[in-house]
Amino acid sequence: MRDDERLSHLIGDIYDAALDAALWPDVLREMASFVGGQAAGLLSKDSVSKIGIATYHAGVDPHYLRLYAETYCKFDPMAGLHFFDVEQVVSIPELIPLDEFRQGRFYREWVQPQGWLDAANSVLDKSVTSYAYLSIIRDEAAGMVDDEMRRRMCLVIPHVRRAVLIGRAIDLKTTEAASLADALDGLSAGMFLIDATGRIVHANVAGHTILRADDYLRAAGGRLLANEPHVNGTLRDIFSAIGAGDAALGSKGIAVPLAAKDGTRHVAHVLPLTSGARGGARTAYAATAALFVHRAALETPSLPEAIAKAYRLTPTELRVLLAIVEIGGVPEVAEALGVAAETVKTHLGRLYEKTGAHRQADLVKLVAGFSSPLR
After folding, report:
1. Do domains 186-295 and 303-370 have the same CATH topology?
2. How many CB atoms lie under 10 A from the CB of residue 361?
3. Which residues, other chains included, contact 314 with Cβ-Cβ below 8 Å and sequence gap of 6+?
4. Torsion over CA of 126, 128, 130 and 131, rounded to 10 degrees?
5. Is the domain covering 303-370 a CATH 1.10.10.10 domain?
6. pLDDT tens per residue across span 27-65
7. Model confidence at 78, in pLDDT bands (50, 70, 90)?
8. CATH T-level fold of 3-176
9. Tens digit of pLDDT for each residue in 92-108?
């Protein structure tokens, strides 16, 4: 295979690895072969502690990788790599005089026993205290890093850097999605994400519990159905209208009554996901509506009442708590309530003691936690 064909194939594999991290060892092996090395690794290093981690690697004995992580990462000369520009190719003699390097423990006890001689390294990303880098190692038979190796490294480094950043962004989005799923599972209300045909795209834990009961709501063929035919027709019409972008439904949603077999009443709040900024995005989304289901109650305690009962707050303490949330700091609350700042601080101390909060921000989160997700 010609070099241009090898490079094109390698670049494709690099971006594949951005989507599937399990491919990195094979890609690194391919990369080492292309640039003229015998081993390679994607590593990260802390500039302060000098601790290094080989995230992905190829061609290095696992025994020596363990020794590197446990001991020798603190002795390698890569700590100086942090001071070089991103994507710049740097060999070991540029980091430390070669004679000094060969006299050190890192070379004598880790590099030389493996038959290594030099390495071409390049920073892919860095912050004030840490950096990620690519290292391709040369053995004694291949010799020191030369101009040809540098040239080939420069061909692949920009793609490796982009792939690493893409992979990091994907990991972040995956983590955010998992966190969102955890938050939805914490809702007491059943929650369903529905497409225009009524198909269930996602359901939280409470939603799955409702479906397992097979009572006022059920799933059939992956679609959400109500046990009452007229309600089922209503939901189907709503989902279809939202999918067509019917703004007449409004962005605040529609409440649909549901009746269980035992006579208890429930309410389904259908919230369109196609209004506002999302509706203007030129992206196809599977879910067009969110459906929140909870039991109907004639007498639902107000938010302040629920908080006061939960923490046994006096009327004055509750008043200060709500003022902190709505107004802000102690001076502003004192002025708004017409009391001394010291009085507000006294009530704040009692609020901290009763609620377990430590800061005013914690109190704001506490009140927000009592708010209905359907508000």
Report:
1. no
2. 10
3. none
4. 10
5. yes
6. 999 999 999 999 999 998 886 677 888 889 999 999 999
7. confident
8. Beta-Lactamase (3.30.450)
9. 999 999 999 999 999 99
Reported as a pLDDT band with limits 50, 70 and 90, residue 319 is confident
How far is residue 367's CA from residue 351's CA, in Å, rounded to a whole number? 12
Tokens of 48: 């302060």
Query: Which class would CATH give 186-295?
Result: alpha beta
Helical packing angle, 24-35 and 3-19, nearest 10°: 160
pTM score, whole prediction: 0.52
Average of per-residue pLDDT values in the chain: 84
Domain extents in the chain: 3-176, 186-295, 303-370
